[in-house]
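Thread title: Can someone regenerate the structure for this chain?

I was given the following input by a collaborator and told the matching structure tokens would be attached. They weren't. Posting the sequence so someone can regenerate them.
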Amino acid sequence: MTTPAGWYDDGSGSLRWWDGAQWSAHVRTTDGAPMVTEQPSVEPAVPVAQSPEATPFTPPYTLPSSGASTERAIAPHPVGSPETAWAVGAPLVQPPAPGVSVLGVIGLAVVVVGVVCACIPATSVVGWALLGVGFVLSLVSLFLGGRKWPGITGLAIAAVGALLAFAVSLVLLATTSTVESTGSPLSIPGERPPDDDGVDTEEGTDPSSIEGAEMVPFAELEVGDCLPFVDYGDTEQIYELPVVSCDQPHTDEVYFIFEVDDEEFPGEDALGDSAWDGCAAQFDTYVGIAYEDSELDFYSYQPTETSWARADDRTVQCILFSYDDVTGTLEGAKY
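Best answer:
Regenerated them for you:
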């Protein structure tokens, strides 16, 4: 605190003028005598030692002389104030490092789930929607506080996952289009016994070119449908069969249709065995005579692995056939 300017007892019984910074040369007596101005001496004015009776007075500080150091002592500050840390040169506290962006982590998780769902046919629509939401969340997280790596990773996975899901969709679409273009599941013909009597047929005959034939998908075949003999050559998968009137010469006839109970595709060989057993069990019921005693034979059409998976096809068609052309139905033929 600075002592204000005024007349103060200098300890010698006189009042001397304090200009607020130092003693001046102006003095006066305590009894109100006129002010006496002293001639300034060469030496700087120094306060006269105070007597015991005088009121002690100490200036706040002495101004430095022209040759003295200009460094000023810093007054102490209360502990805990901001000035204290600055005065003693305490190191500044570094702000905490930013954490991981929560929105970026959420976007990354949504993208991963979306990629998995988009590659599964049953959930592909939901997967594509999740991919879009995850992409937006990851993008927005880049403009918020926190570390950016979850958002960047989410954008990268979203781009790669979209390409992968699109490729899977194309493959599924191509497979589905193959099945839908025929209007029915495709099937594999079972092994037909050789033609011992030498029925004259042209190898690789186009079924649709047979006179009076109507091409019928497997799903629409019925017991009692009559079929002309067709040599399909090396064809492994068939989508539909030619059906003719039973009054027209033919060799084959649908005599039994049943469903396979297996949940998973058992394989072509195992499925063929199941088809043979199921058809053989119904032979004598339709023909009226045991298979071992009959001149007729049979084969079957069974689902392919593709129609099993894509069209939920479990149907086996049992085909009764004669080595010679017949007219009329073979039901109850008894030979």
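The helical segments are 82-88, 102-118, 124-141, 149-182, 268-281, 283-287, 305-310.
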